[in-house]
Design brief:
This protein is an alpha/beta fold and 251 residues long. Helices cover 43% and strands 15% of the residues. An 8-stranded parallel β-barrel has the order 1-2-3-4-5-6-7-8, surrounded by 7 helices. Helix 7 links the parallel strand 5 and strand 6.
Length: 251
């Protein structure tokens, strides 16, 4: 499954520095077929560009922690990914193991069906349990917005804030749809300023990143990190921007 890239007009506002833009990106290495060599190359990319974090599969956390030690790039991983259907106890156990392995950020998938069914209390309790298991690490809650209506989204975002999550996040990148401008705006106006918004799924260009940042997203799950940041450097230097997005599809 790949999510369609977000179409955004060429950004005509102020440009961030490459360092500022890099610290908006969680470089994603979550595709199930990635080989150890491909993961190692992705970790090198995250280190080279000094992204905010790298988000890896649970089995890759140990390697990522070792490679990125001292780089300033946080290591994150996923819980209940990508479907969210595991029990709360399983998600708590997975979180505790990831923390023990050195993960600094946790991106968890809610039980989407429970929220769609109206059980907001279950959603809040599940998130709170993962937040406790994370022991102060950053927890980002993935809602998979493509499956939710606006009423369900708002209820879920409010539950995440009440449960102590640091971020609300649009999607895994493996559902039929990913981040949208409308969802970012809805998330930003629903949660308090201290809760951040992460966009994931389809953010493959600099213009898309800047447009969604303008609407309130502060982090982006991306595989097209090099494409985005090289384009930014080119624009700041006055050279022609990249137009061929050949980045890996997916999250």
């Amino acid at each position: 499954m790949s999510v369609t890239s977000i179409a955004a007009p060429r950004w005509d506002g102020p440009l961030p520095t490459p360092e500022e833009a890099a610290k908006m990106i969680d470089h994603s290495l979550l595709r199930p077929e990635l080989t150890p060599a491909e993961v190692a190359a992705g970790l090198e990319t995250a280190s080279k560009y000094r992204t905010a974090s790298v988000c890896v599969r649970p089995a890759d956390v140990t390697a990522a922690v070792a490679v990125l030690a001292g780089s300033g790039v946080a290591v994150g991983s996923v819980v209940g990914f990508p479907h969210g259907g595991a029990t709360t106890a399983a998600k708590v156990s997975e979180t505790a193991e990831l923390v023990a392995l050195g993960a600094q950020e946790i991106d968890m998938v809610i039980d989407i069906g429970r929220l769609r069914g109206g059980d907001v209390a279950y959603t809040q309790d599940e998130i709170a349990a993962v937040v406790r298991a994370a022991e102060g690490r950053t927890v980002k809650v993935i809602f998979e917005n493509a499956y939710l209506d606006d009423e369900q989204k708002v209820a879920g975002y409010r539950a995440a804030e009440a449960a102590g999550a640091a971020f609300v996040k649009t999607s895994t990148g493996f559902a039929p749809g990913g981040a949208t401008a409308a969802d970012i705006a809805l998330m930003r106006r629903t949660v308090s300023p201290h809760v951040h918004v992460k966009a994931a799924g389809g953010v493959r260009t600099l213009d898309a990143l800047l447009e969604l940042h303008h609407l309130g997203a502060t982090r982006f799950g991306a595989t097209a990190t090099a494409t985005i940041l090289d384009d930014l450097r080119g624009r700041l230097a006055g050279t022609a921007p990249l137009t061929d997005d050949d980045a890996t599809t997916g999250y």
